[in-house]
Amino acid sequence: MTMDTADPLLGDADDTRRQLDALFRRQAPALVRFLRRRTSQDEAQDLAQEAFLRLTRAAEGQSLQKPEAYLARIARNLLRDRAKSVSGFRERTHAVLDPELHAANDGDPHLALEARQLLERHEAAILKLKPKPREVYLRHRIEGQTYAEIAKAMGLGLNSIERYMITAIATIDRHLGRP
Predict the structure, then answer these.
(1) From CA 122, how far away is CA 11, in angstroms rounded?
(2) H or E element: which one contains 119?
(3) Which residue segments constitute the domains of the chain, with CATH numbers given?
(4) pLDDT, tens digit, for every residue of 93-146?
(5) Can you list the alpha helix ranges (DSSP code H) found in 93-177?
(6) CA distance 47 to 54
(7) Cβ atoms of residues 168 and 162 within 8 Å
(8) Which of 8-17, 27-36, 118-127, 145-154 has the lowest mean pLDDT?
(9) What is the pTM of this model?
(10) What's the start-to-end Cα distance of the chain, in Å?
(11) For residue 35, which of 86, 81, 89, 78 has the smallest C-alpha distance?
């Protein structure tokens, strides 16, 4: 990190670097644990690194009153962005899981078997979800409800619905062996 100017709150550039380094040493293990509960180990490490990089960039241009809170917000935003990205990618590349449709269209029994097995694994992963993440996931993915509609129907905030979707997607991905 290169900083030529002094920050009035954090002191000079060297002081800012020392404070960010100390913050990293204090917060990195907990941040990685937090992210690991929602992603894979490798992805948790990458997201933690990205969170600290963004915090460092933010510290270059302004003073940070509560860097720990800012870091936590960055991490939650990275998880939300990841969930949206993964969800959007899966929806764009979604394969139809109807074994009968595959068998009828291609006449390939192996394709039908693979589709049936994938569907069974996906259903098993959904059943492993806790009740609220499962309900949110099913309402969104199966019933086609928007997050706002789900939030209203369940009496929850939009942020809660997003967190439940992140949890559901990460759990299903882990169960299916997806990165």
Answers:
(1) 53
(2) helix 109-128
(3) 13-89 (1.10.1740), 95-176 (1.10.10.10)
(4) 344 444 444 444 455 677 767 777 888 888 888 898 999 999 999 999 888 888
(5) 99-106, 109-128, 131-141, 147-154, 158-176
(6) 10
(7) no
(8) 8-17
(9) 0.44
(10) 30
(11) 78
